Amino acid sequence: MSETVRPTSPESTELLRPGGVWRNWGRSEQTTPAFRATPTSVDEVVAVIRAARDRGLTVKAVGASHSFTGIAATEGVLLDLGRLDGLLAVDVERGRVTLAAGTHLHQLPALLAPYGLALENMGDIDRQTIAGATSTGTHGTGARFRGLAAQLVAVTLVTADGSILRVSETENAELLPAVRLGLGSLGIVVEVTVQCVPAYLLRAVEHPEGFDEVLDAFEQRVSESDHFEFYWWPHTDRVMTRTNTRLPGDAELRPVGPVANWVEETLLQNRVLAVKSGLGRIAPALTPAVNRLATRVYGDRDFTDKSYEVFTSPRTVRFRESEYAIPREAVPQAVRDLRGLVERMGWRLSFPVEVRVAAGDENWMSTAYRRDSGYIAVHQYFREDHLPYFRAVDALLRSYDGRPHWGKIHFQEAEELASRYPRFGDFVSVRDRLDPDRVFANPYLERVLGA
Predict the structure, then answer these.
(1) For helices 387-398 and 331-345, what crossing angle results, to 10°?
(2) pLDDT by residue (tens digit) across 111-169?
(3) Which domain range does residue 328 map to?
(4) pTM of the model
(5) In a domain, 237, yes or no
(6) Could you tell me which of 126, 131, 127, 104 has the C-alpha nearest to residue 188?
(7) CB neighbours of 93 closer than 8 A, spacing ≥ 6?
(8) Which CATH number is 291's domain given?
């Protein structure tokens, strides 16, 4: 168990260093902060915020830089939470763990294993930090399972005046639906307590199927499965389905062998995708044929492994992404409309379209707030111009009452977003209370929340 050292009076001048250039993982955002800071304790976070205020600078926390929007960008102080990590406390009886904000999701299996615990659900990437993932609304798939932020039962953050605010079921409980998914606008999250579940296995069945066949049975598939998703390869009539079934932790393991796993996840999912993407730039006319080939060689497996081994996969090819949440029942028609859009526009798209689902929750700024949701995500190789494709998809999914993922590229602004989130005004009021001087503001937050 890691232990956070908290000096009694950290010198703020020693914590700030020249900023340099910051870029996000997808290379869709870049900025040059005046300063960077890498605190190792909550007291140092407090000192940085106070130093920034003294200089009239804003502060933004950054985790793994895996958001595709400018949600972490700043020209003030960039606060890297990478050294504020580890397991801080465990409540074995209730299955709860308290984590430092900079703990990466890929660290959790080793941290939780000694206690026989696991996350209830995960997305397909584990590079993010726990605070970054929850603050932007990261989710997995599963009709009965909520996003990662809904698994938080307590949050500790440092507010704009340098005070420490603890929010839980028993302390400032009225703020919990806001701070669990706070977009980095309410304060610097320094600790979170996660409600875990007993460790479990997943049986994963991956299989290519027909486009219309899957959409016609979509509601049945998601209702009858623990975790269902599919990928549609543009310019084809095929999708790759993934159906994960939860099993007890002591069930029989049948993992993919190391060679087969390397072939599927390293060779096919990443190296071949890199070649496809590069080829698509120089010879786009070949993309449809290459995608059709991919549907014949990619993703046809049946295996059982620990939950985190099944949920997540490596992603080494840089891309940009846009994702919208829409009412779950609207997914089949929306995907068909997206297919028609691609055909009409004549684009040549190397990356598949990803479709997932999640249960509704009570977090005010959750894309699944009080609505069982379907998620449609589109991707573009990072060296290609993503704007025409993403803008058109953005317009299409707005017509389905779409709520954009906060960490993925979209074009909505505060006025429209206020109409999509019933508690939008309440969230902004909490922001006004906790950060009246906009210490944690930046252009992205001004666009989506208002100045």
Answers:
(1) 140
(2) 999 999 999 999 999 999 999 999 999 999 999 999 999 999 999 999 999 999 999 99
(3) 200-404
(4) 0.91
(5) yes
(6) 131
(7) none
(8) 3.40.462.10
